[in-house]
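Quick one, tokens below. Sequence please?
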């Protein structure tokens, strides 16, 4: 392999990620903080997070659920979170009986309750099984969040809220999604640890959390 070409490709990859994270840092930290605060209001009182993705995005979704059931960094109670794609018997049975497009929607129908949160990850935003899950979730009263690549895309339109990573490379989008997953867990932990009245009344609380997340990304 030509080492000069490999080095140039590696630098382009790193620059692509750096640019994407710069845009994410400027535009989307407030959204992640709001999502973390919402989870802190839902999960400790019996709510559930459902998550799904395909391929590499499945790994990212399962990473998120593992951090919530286990822990991100500090000790706290376990929270209910299920990675739908990891339910292999359900996925294969549903796919066999109803088709691949229904492997997540059927599980959302089974496990989701009004007020729960459904997180769907897709680099393209065009996966039919995730779009179907989003539609089923919203009809059932779940809050549907999507993490995708650039707009416009069908999943972004089907979800209640979408975090779109502005990058051309699938790898860059997935890498930025992992950062978003970690920051979501951090925002959740910070919101969970703070006394609820103080969080509601403290002026500039969201700005302070955003500053803390920016410092960690520096």
């Amino acid at each position: 392999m030509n080492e000069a070409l490999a080095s140039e490709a590696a630098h382009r990859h790193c620059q692509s990620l750096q640019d994407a994270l710069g845009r994410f840092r400027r535009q989307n930290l407030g959204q992640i903080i709001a999502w973390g605060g919402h989870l802190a209001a839902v999960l400790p009182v019996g709510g559930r997070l459902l998550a799904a993705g395909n391929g590499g995005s499945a790994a990212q979704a399962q990473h998120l659920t593992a951090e919530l059931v286990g822990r991100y960094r500090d000790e706290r109670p376990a929270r209910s979170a299920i990675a739908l794609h990891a339910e292999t018997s359900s996925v294969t049975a549903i796919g066999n009986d109803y088709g691949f497009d229904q492997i997540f929607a059927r599980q959302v129908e089974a496990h989701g309750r009004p007020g729960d949160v459904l997180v769907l990850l897709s680099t393209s935003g065009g996966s039919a099984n995730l779009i179907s899950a989003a539609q089923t979730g919203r009809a059932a009263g779940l809050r549907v969040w999507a993490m995708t690549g650039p707009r416009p895309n069908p999943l972004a339109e089907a979800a209640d809220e979408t975090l779109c990573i502005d990058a051309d490379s699938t790898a860059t989008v997935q890498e930025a999604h992992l950062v978003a997953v970690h920051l979501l867990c951090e925002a959740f932990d910070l919101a969970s640890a703070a006394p609820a009245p103080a969080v509601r009344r403290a002026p500039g609380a969201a700005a302070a959390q955003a500053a803390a997340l920016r410092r960690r990304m520096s």
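Residues 197-203 have pLDDT under 50 and may be disordered. The longest helix spans residues 3-27.
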